[in-house]
Every structure is written in C-alpha cells, then in structure tokens.
Design goal:
Elements lengths: L1 E3 L2 H9 L5 E5 L7 H7 L3 E6 L3 H6 L4 H9 L4 E3 L6 E5 L3 E5 L5 H4 L6 E5 L3 H13 L1 E2 L2 H59 L6 E10 L4 E7 L5 E4 L2 E4 L5 E5 L5 E6 L3 E6 L1 E4 L11 E5 L2 H4 L8 E6 L5 E9 L4 E3 L15 H13 L1 H13 L13 H4 L6 E8 L4 E6 L8
Parallel strand pairs: 2-3, 3-4, 13-22
Antiparallel strand pairs: 1-7, 2-5, 4-8, 5-6, 6-7, 9-10, 9-21, 10-15, 11-12, 13-14, 14-15, 16-17, 17-18, 18-19, 19-20, 21-22
Length: about 425
Amino acid sequence: MKFTSNIVPLIKEQLQNDKVDLKIFSPYLTGSAALEIAQLGKSAKVYTVVNVQVLASGASSYSAIKALLKKKIPVYYLPNLHAKMVVAKDRFVTLGSQNFTERGASANFETNVRVRGVSKGVEALVAKMERKATLLTSGFLESVNNAAKALAGKYDALRKQAEELDRDLIAAEKSRASAQRGERAIDAEVRSELAKRPQSNPRKCSIVSRFDEKYARLQHSLKGEELLTWPIGKKTHDLKPQHRYLCISGAGKLGWVRVNKTVYSFIENRIGVDKGQIKGQAQWGVAIDASDKACKARKGDYNLRVAVIDREDKELCHVFMRYNTEDLDVYPAVMLRNSGKPKAPADERRKAVEWIDANTESFARDIKRLITTPFKFEENLTGERADKFFGAEGTSHTLCLVKLRSNVALRVLEPEEVPAG
C-alpha cells in the first residue's frame, strides 16, 4: 500500500509499462488528468456526475468531458457518485478524496492510497455502481451544457459573493481572536501586578439573591462576613459603608463595587466625574468607562476609556488607557466619529487632543487618582448585579484587599491563588 496527497503521478508511473483495463471514478472532472490516465490503459471507462448544477457551478468542465468523448473513451454519468477511485484490472485500486480536477492536483488538501491487487469486494462494489450508470452521449452532454450556460453567470456571481463573505468572516474571526488574546494579556498583567502588592488574608464569599420589595426586582449580591474591615500587615483598613471601591475580578476586569458590612452589590463599570478634577482644565469633566464595549471601540490592549467633556457637556475627545494597578499607560487622545454623543466644535476638540498629548503625565495622575479613590453615588443602587461581575448565584469566591500606592482595591482570587486550608 502506498499513501500520497496527489494520486495522479503515482497512477501514471504504475501504468507506464503495465497497460491494463481501467475504470476511473471521479464525481468532478476538469483539466486533462482523467484523459491522460485513460490513455495509459489498454482500455478505459470513466464514471462521473453530469448535470446542470455541476457544469454551471464549474465543479466539472464541459471541455474536459468533451475531450474524453473525442478520444473515443466511454464516459458514463452516475448520479450520486461520491467515490474517487481507479480500478486497474487485477493490478491495483486507488482510493481517496481527490477528484481528477486541477484543484484536486494542486490547491486542495487530499489524501489517497494505492493498494495492490483488486479484491472481490471491490469488484462487487464496482459492478453495483456500473449497474446504476448510463452511457453519456454527445447530444446529452450538449443539452446539459447549454442549460448550464444560462446559469453559469449567476453561479459565478454567487461564488464571488460567498468568497467575499468568507474573507470578511475569517478576517472578523482573526480580529476577534486577536482582541481576545489582547484581553487575556491585559488580564494576566493586572493579576500579575496585583500579586506583587501587599494584601490582606483572603475571605470566602458567595453569590446570594433576594427579591427587593422596594425596587421590585431580584437583587444579587456577594455575601460574606466582616467585609468592611481588612487588616494588611499591622494596619487595619476600614472601608466606608455604601461607598464604591475599585474591584478587580478573577478574570482581571475592573469595576467599582458598593460595599457594606456583609454584602457587596451593584458593580459600576462607568464613572461620571464632575468638572474641576483635571488639573489645568477646570472646566472639563470626564466619564471613565471600563466596560468591554467601550474598550473595544478602538482596537488595542485597553481596559479603560475616558471621554473628556467640555463645560456644556459636549464631547471633546476620548483617551484609551491600560491600568494594571501599578502603571497607567495612556495612548494618544482621539476624536471618535460615531460615539453617539453631542460634540464640541472641531477646533476645540483638536485643542483638547493637543493639550492631553502635551500633558499626558499630569492627565494620567488625575485619572489614576479618580479610579482608585472611593466615592459615593447619589443613587446607591446603580450598576451591574453582583452575579454579572463575580459569578452566578450559588458560586463561591475568595476576596482580599490589596494595598495600592495611595489607596486600596478589592481583589477576587483565582482558585490556584487561594492558600490551602
């Protein structure tokens, strides 16, 4: 037995000095491969599929089949043929995926084997297929070809449209995979930096739910014991009830969680900051967004987007950032076209971009201070439910408090990070 990706050279080599009767089975025929093989046999019969769809789509070519008939090689059309096989009487049989087409010999990934001898089982199978076959006449071939010509243009247009769609889908999938790799890299970077910071002992919590009569909705929360008091080393940190603290999920996502003594609930991934918080630009406000949708508004390895707003609450520009709890990388400010928000005049927007790019370090310090400083909303119950950030109802999580340079943050530990016992 011999294995090969292109069976044509192997068959030709075998038949050069050993002319025998051949039966060639190939659903599709293009090019000259079938004719070249048939002419090497003592006699040859070719079995294929001949119908309007096959010729109109280009799967088989009229010229390849016509060339066989001109050389007086009998061609049989066999509906539903799927086998790709050459039977050389008493010598060998080939089996595989390869049609005798130009693509089969060059572009496609094919697998084929040649087996010496022809078993009775193969002979029985061939006889069964031959009984279903019909001798192809030139007249029938012409009729099929004429009908196929009327549809060939439509098939070609549809094929090009499908190929274009395939290219777009493949490009989108590659882009998605690339973005996911970028996200995983950011998440790993965040977790790596967190592990270097001083931390409290971990505490176990779990997601619970209850129906909130006041707001007439199901409320999911993360419940545990003494969730406001966390010792780190010799110092105890007391969190302020109903305030929001930066929290990093086990997957490395950022959010601001509402804390209470035994319950954490409603994680915000967006913060609106009043004017006066950006040094050097007292009239500016900013909207900080850590949601996936916001960060994916522009390709790159970001986990924060900052929208800069003027005194009239009109958008000036956006700044994409990457925060890993140690460093805050700031990328050049951009003016997004389709953010859906009212925009300031173009000259003011350009000046804002220029100012941020010229004062990046100062701007970054202000944003870092804003995302790490605890705050309290006028409306406490805003943001995602706890189960959307931490995990589904009934799942358990292990939290600790992490000391940042000037503030603290809550951290969800991955299972492998939880100390044994």
